[in-house]
Every structure is written in C-alpha cells, then in structure tokens.
Amino acid sequence: AAARTSIVHTNGSRRNSRPRLRARASSRLVSSSAYRMHLVNQADPTTQASLSSRIGAFAADLSFDDIPAAVTEQVRHLMLDALGCALAARDEEFAALYAAAIAELSGPTNGNSGCAVIGHRLRLPPRDAALLNGILAHGLDFDDTHIAGIAHLSVAVFPAVMALAAARGLSGRQALLAYVVGLEAGSRLAAAAPGL
User: Taking phi first (over 0 means left), then psi (-120 to 50 degrees means alpha), and beta for anything else, what does residue 169 get?
Assistant: First the structure.
C-alpha cells in the first residue's frame, strides 16, 4: 500500500505549480511499476529470499523493453527536472565551495577525462562527479520527493547513472533502464523505512 505512492511529488514552492501533472504522471508510473516488481512483492515463503536478493533479481531481470512507454516518458521528465535543478544551483555560493573542495580532494584530471559536472567545465572521477552533481541537484531543494518514504530519489540516482554512463559508455537506453531500476528500488526501500 505505502510502496505504491507517488515518487515524483515536488516540494517547496514548485509543489503548487504543477500538482495535477505530477499527480497524474506519478500514478501512471507507480501503477505501471507492476510491470516487473512482482519479483519484489511476491516472495515465496518457502525460499525466504532476502529483500536485497529480490530487488537484485528484479534489477537483473528487467530489460528496457519491459518498461511501459508512459514510464519512460515520465522518467525522462524526472531526469530533466534533476538536470534543471542542478543547473539552477550552479551559480550559488555553496556550489562553488563544494566544487572547489571536491576537485581538490579528487586531484588533477587529464583534459577531458573524467565525468561532467552539470553547469561547470569541471570534470571529475565518476564518484566525485556523482557526489557534486547530487549536491547541485538537491542544493535548492526543488527536486522530486518520494512522499511515502520522504526521500529525494533523483538526486541520488540521476548523478550516479550519469557518472556510470560516462565511465562505462552506456547507451541512452541502458542509462534510462538503470535510472528506472534505481527509482524503483529506492522508492520501495524508502517506503519500507520512511525518513531513514
């Protein structure tokens, strides 16, 4: 019940700007998430598979073709939202401070090696790029929120997927699949332990 709530509500002042669009889109995403999540929801009591192994099986078995078109469309909107939030924060004082600190801890990079940082010319190793992009995406606190779990999933999943895609040369379909898996797993875990 709680796991089937929206993962795309926005907090802060933006909540009032698009509530109907977000509510309709999120109910499509959540109701269509049954496309493969039965692996997580229907545990066989005789095997007593752990939650992590069931989520792992879901992630390993899901293919891009399993994802309904409505979900891929909504996920693209969520990715654009995270990107927009990071771009909006790029000129804030905290952005410059974090960028300098993370760049110093990362050490030098060779020209175009490393992963992009949203809104900056800076390139960092995947871990550090994901960290800084997550800080930027969440910095102004306009990012999406999973209401049942009180979690900001895109700021964790999107930067990690961007860094992974850059480091491993993933296709757009592979990156979108990874993002869907991250949102599904994150929303289920967040709903099971809200606010943690």
Answer: left
Grouping H, G, I as helix, E, B as strand and the rest as coil, residue 123 is strand
Cβ–Cβ contacts within 10 Å for residue 160, how many?
A: 20
Q: Can you read off the two tokens belonging to residue 67?
A: 């994802």
Choose among 85, 179, 97: nearest CA to 136: 85
How much of the chain is in helix, strand and coil states, percent to nearest 5? 65, 5, 30
Asked if residues 9 and 147 have their Cβ atoms less than 8 Å apart, the reply is yes
Tens digit of each residue's pLDDT (9 = 90 or more) over 53-111: 888 899 999 999 999 999 999 999 999 999 999 999 999 999 999 999 999 998 877 66
Q: What is the pLDDT of residues 126-169, one digit of tens each?
A: 999 999 999 999 999 988 877 877 788 999 999 999 999 999 99
Cα separation, 193 vs 64, whole angstroms: 28
pTM: 0.73
Cα torsion 54, 128, 101, 87: sign: negative
Q: Encode 14-29: b = buried (16+ Cβ within 10 Å), e = exposed.
A: beeeeeeebeebbebb
Amino acid occupying residue 141: D
